[in-house]
Amino acid sequence: MNILEVSNLTKKFGGLTANSNISMAVKQGSITAVIGPNGAGKTTFFNMITGVYQPTEGEILLEGKSIVGLKPDQVAKRGISRTFQNIRLFGEMTVIENVLVGMHTHLRGNLLGIFLNLPNTRKEESEAEVEAYRLLEYFNLEPFINEKASSLSYGNQRKLEIARALATKPKLLLLDEPAAGMNPRETRELTEVIQRMGKEFNVTVILIEHDMKLVMEISEHIVVLDHGEKIAEGNPDEIRSNPKVIEAYLGKAALELEKR
Amino acid sequence: QSSSNQSGQQTTTEQTGANSNVIKIATHTPLSGGNAIIGEAIKLGAQMKLEEEASRFEEMGFTLQLEPYDDQADPKKGVSNANLIGADDAIYGVIGHFNSGVTIPSSEIYEKYNITMVNPGSTATDVTDRGLKTVNRIVARDDFQGPAGAQFAVNELGAKRIFVIQDKTAYGTGIADAFVAEAEKLGAEIVGYEGITVGEKDYNGVINQALNKKPDLIFFGGIYSEGGIIIKQARDKGINVPIMGGDGMDSSGLVDIAGEAVKNVYITSVAGDTSSTPEGKKFMDDYKAKFNKEAEAFSAYGYDAMGVFLQGLENAIKANGGKLPPKEAVVEAVRAITDYQGVITDVSFDEKGDNKNAKVYLYKFEEAKYPASYVGEVSQ
Amino acid sequence: MTVLEVNNIETYYGAIQALKGVSFQVERGEIVTLIGSNGAGKSTTLKSISGLAKVKKGAILYNGQDITNKQAHETTLMGISHVPEGRRIFANLTVKENLLMGAFSVKGKAVIEERMENVFTYFPRLKERMNQKGGTMSGGEQQMLAIGRALMMQPNLLMLDEPSMGLAPIVVEQIFEIILQLNEMGITILLVEQNAYQALSIAHRGYVIQNGEIVLTGTGKELAENEEVKEAYLA
Amino acid sequence: MKEKLSMLLQKKSVQITLFTLFIIVTSSALYFSQKSVVSFLLLLSSLLILYYMNLKVVTKWLIALGLLFILIPFASSGGPAFHSYMEVATMVGIYIAMALGLNIVVGMAGLLDLGFVAFFAVGAYSYSIFATSQASNFMPFGEYPLSGSTFWGFLIIGGIMAAIAGVLIGVPVLRVKGDYLAIVTLAFGEIIRIIFNNLDRPINFTNGAMGIASITPPNLFGLEIIYPNQYYFIVLFILLFTIFAVNRLEHSKIGRAWKAVRENEIAAQAMGIPLVKTKLLAFALGASFSGIMGVVFAAKQQFIDPTSFTLLESFTILVMVVLGGMGSVPGAILGAALVTILNLQVLTELTNWLNQLSLQGVITIPDALTPAKLQRFIFGVLLVIFAIYRTKGLIPAKNKKFDVEQIKERAQKKAAISNIGSNDTDRVQA
Amino acid sequence: MFQEMLQTLPQVIIDGLTLGSVYAVVALGYTMVYGILQLINFAHGEIFMTGAYIGTAVLLIILGMGFGSSIPSLLLLIIALVITALCTGLLGMGIERVAYRPVRRAPRLVALITAVGVSFILQDVVRIVAEILTGNYIVTGPSLFSKQITIPVSSFLSVFNDASLKVSFFIVLICAIGMMISLDFFVNKTKWGTAIRAVSMDRETAALMSINVNKVIAITFFIGSSLGGATGVLFAIQYGTIDPYIGFILGIKAFIAAVMGGIGNIRGAMFGGFLLGLIEMFASANLSLLTGGIFGAEYKDVFAFAILILVLLFKPEGLLGKAATEKV
Ligand SMILES: Nc1ncnc2c1ncn2[C@@H]1O[C@H](COP(=O)(O)OP(=O)(O)OP(=O)(O)O)[C@@H](O)[C@H]1O
Ligand SMILES: Nc1ncnc2c1ncn2[C@@H]1O[C@H](COP(=O)(O)OP(=O)(O)OP(=O)(O)O)[C@@H](O)[C@H]1O
Ligand SMILES: CC(C)C[C@H](N)C(=O)O
Ligand SMILES: [Mg+2]
Ligand SMILES: [Mg+2]
What is the pLDDT of residue C235? Predict the structure, then answer.
């Protein structure tokens, strides 16, 4: 079953075509990687799926239903969550509050309940706290619960973004360079987390990453973009040895990947 | 209700304190903002009278003290100051306010505390029409001033097409409407009726309208700071017909601002020409000597308002056997004043607190000089 | 000769102590790398040197001169260039204007032109996009711009904070090559990298920082082979 | 020595003793002296001290309620200044509620609103028009003025009217961001004021610049409410409700959504938070507090005109919020109290005092420097000083501290009960 | 109705341009400071007002020295402009140093408070000084360039009425345009101008480019404030009378103009200023005609603000502003 189907997706910025005619499908429960040189249009692709940009052309189907034209919050409610390449946390809020914001759509409390401090609302809040705590624990962030998000180091901020995205209980999670700013060891840990998380939270993952080790290890399917176009698609082995990909993107790294 | 009596009683019974022979009188006028010149003038006039009388009261065993308040021409500020004034046991009277918009709500407070107000310049009808026992005013009302202006404009100046501008304040609207009603009754046509924004400096837009309507008189309801600019800008545009205004324009500020353009401007005022009598002249000289400033028309009203109040106070003291009277007694004594002779106006209050002898005066600016030349006066 | 000497510095963010006595030095012509996990204090160290963070205790000497707590524009004028973490491009300036800002203290149009051409030889993409707003460039393009901008002032000591972050593998190689080239041209380099393999492979020496303290030091090679380092950072 | 002293001060029992002593001294000073602004202010400041004491929240509230409902009104009733104290306290309450409302909009949701006083005006006019004969100019039915007992209903109506105005303004306005929003709200605020100032023609709704006088005072079971001490209690009740509501909101999903929108709109949207709806809610709720107090204000003044609703007034409320500490509820309260007391009482008293000195010849002051004219100046100086020395505000906003241990405990309990999540609490291999 | 509107149009345009050019130059000062600190410098209106007083004082002093009448008016004006610009420029720098720099790291709105505080202080200081010197704080300056010229528009096109203007109109207009063009050049084309923009986006990084951030900010304030002060002088010459409170309303209007044009954008500020002046003038001259007397000139601000709101609804970044692209 395909959870996401994209066809002929195109985005133009003035004269610049950032995405041109991209079509792809993502299998439910899979981990897909989108790779490509800098400026290839990967982030733009994510932006269109999440409603941040409106496509110039093309169709995006989530579980068979079009989500083109929806606002980002509506897209989020349909079950797509994401992280950002340039970290976008709620800097002045604490770590746990960031995660609680992620749960926003799942909390049912209304104005009346809040004003009157009704038992339902209270219970829901305390459950949410527990859930948030667990998520943070999952990413080893529980020591920072009451810290301001902006005071975390770069790497921890990245993890918090993922935790926050998971808190929305998405069906589809888009990660934009989750390992950027992490050292190889941390990257390895992250690789495991992503893999486990996909299963435990029952979420399909698409990720953009320049760390080839992570990409090759984790993804079932890889899509390669260059100059806004899809130049290759396939499983890691196919991509590793694809001359187009080597030339445009991997360079010598391909050799090292071969070695392993 | 009950608590008003309570506090009233407290004020009267607690007079045995150490400084019980100090009587304070507040002035409560705009000392900052657009009306400050007049507010200041009233304050200084009142201060002068108080200082003149101080020794006399000293002999009777009382120390007079002036307590100036700034209402900033803002009703809210006025009301909260009024509460402070009410709280001060020693304050018996208030000279003020100038702006009717402040006088009306503040006087509600004075009424609660039995503090006598003698008003030297608020002309709106509502000031006295609410029937408060503490409110007295020594100047004429808008429904007297406005029509008087209209009669002069139509009958004497022969205005047929009148363009009316007002500043959209309580005062401006009040006087302009009173003027319009009478002018229309007298058969003149109101060819335009426009409002402006106080505080701006460019009224060319409205003046262009006036220019186009070719009126034979422009009436402005508002105060000198805007009036001066309108006069100047109208003259710049070549509008040479008479321009007329009310007491709000009766200030040296008008001449400062409009300069030469002030010629052929008429004003009605509730303030008489102080220099027209010898006492008035003397007052002006003393004032100048004391404060190093020319007296404004309203300086003398501040002076007389204080005079009226002190007269009432004195009467009340005497009636109380030379001892400090309760505030209610002062309220009544002031209202009862008849034929008080001030430097500028005689004062006899009617049952509402309006001065029966209040007059409306007409002036014309023949040159760039303040005060303007006296043209005539109208009594009730 | 020692270009940079950091003596036992302590730096705080409000009440949080980020550096707890960091010491190390960089010799002329060296490439020195700082490695360490997230939050160890690598960026804070660089910020302390360039003057973006206030040092509470300790001293920093540059060419023998005390530069502790000098303001950032002063340290740059002395020849220290700091490429900050997260690119920090002037979003609403064009690529060209961004580069010109890099050369703010440089006098002479011709010199500036020449340096700009030089930057373009490293990063041709920047030339193509001369008039694009910096903020709309892709992440990798911004990184190129950030490095290019720092090169415009031809620094004596170049401090790079995670320059390879977010770059395509092929560009990462280029970046490391460029770093080597720059170093050969005589620029001393202090490199903070998460890409510890590659950093250690080009560095003469390295320091491992942990919880705001230097815990280990050695040549690039030594560190790359050190078991602890492997265990903790290289995986 | 110093340390010992501060140790001692940390002790609960010492704190309580000192505090009680303080209250007793100040309140009796207030009660027995005829007019002592200083003791009044000190007594008020006991609330601030209370805020900083380390007592249980519930205890603090109980003490505060006792102070507000009993001690303060009682202690100030000792002298003739009673009503002036109550007047100041009432105005303080009114401004606090407004500051709390604006704090939602500016502090929490990060929407800079420079026209906030408009909502106050809407509330004030909705009561004034119907509590005078003004309404008969355009209402085809009913008899006006309405009786004073409708006041209580109007509290709600005023709140709702203001909220509606907030939404009406918000819908178009929220398309613009940041300081553009500031300017658009400023423009709207002015538009509303100008319209109120001119709606005496063609149909006389508001009586224009003349203002509406003789507004029917509220009536509670036949008791006419006309004195400041009576308003004090009305305002106090409303205020307590407001504070309660704001506190609840702040730590609810709505409060978090506001802050998220403030911090990063794009990320907030990505979390499923609808921007427009969330912002509108902030506008509407903030406005409604203001509207309710507008009704009270109109009833208390018995006269309103558009000069009470100027731009400067909006600024003043903003100053209260920022001075107190943006986003901070106790901050907004303190900011509002401080600015109001400063403007209405301290500066006036101070200038009176200076004036006395100059009249007695102790100091000589040239006319241009008459103290009464210097209130604004002094206020300006104080603003600058406050802002510079307390850059984050008097009581900076604090994030809620979650009790980690407690949450952990609950998490473990839950994990034990439901075995589904049993293995996801396992750490990732380190 | 339209005929009547047409008749007055030439005069309305002239008056609108006059007011508009004052708005425009004051708006420039706002835009500059806003551009660099994201601070709505509400004290700018007061700097403008102070400039008006300083300029008037300079003129009065020179003329008072007796030989003033022998100096050509234009030279007199230039002297007054230069002295004033210098004084208010320094004043602006001083204000920045004392009131804004200490709160630079604080939340943005805190600076708004100090700005309001500074406004109050300036208003009163000017009032006090003026009152002590002249006995009255409303001051009327010497009339320069007050010769009236009539443009016989009606002789070209009879649908129009003649329009009249003061010579000072040209001076105000030319000065305003001159200031804007040079400022535009400075900010967009020179190194220091670019540095100003860089600092406005990211102060830390700008410092890493060896830009002395404090100096750049000080320069910005100097320029913005000297423009504001100089405009004050022009205002005093055109309108004659000044009081310490002219800065507030005019400042707000100018800020609105800046926003309408696209804040941070110099050409936008200038365009917005002229536009607002024209709209206001048009509205106060024609509203009652347009609505058959139901809404008069008193609604001119409502009219102008409504247009502002409309503009921002359809172009939230202002007329000439460029949408700030935030790359996600
Ligand atoms: N809002 C925008 N306006 C103009 N151009 C844009 C905009 N957003 C992206 N671009 C351009 O579109 C192209 C694709 O950008 P995108 O961010 O999608 O690249 P990317 O594949 O994510 O690169 P990287 O790996 O470096 O992050 C780039 O050339 C970029 O400059
Ligand atoms: N602005 C800040 N405010 C408060 N604390 C901060 C701030 N910046 C960093 N810190 C804290 O200082 C410590 C060191 O952070 P620093 O950014 O130097 O780490 P780093 O080694 O560069 O990590 P990374 O690899 O994740 O970038 C961390 O604990 C971090 O939480
Ligand atoms: C000129 C005005 C401000 C005073 C006026 N006489 C009034 O009643 O308000
Ligand atoms: Mg990207
Ligand atoms: Mg770092």
Answer: 59
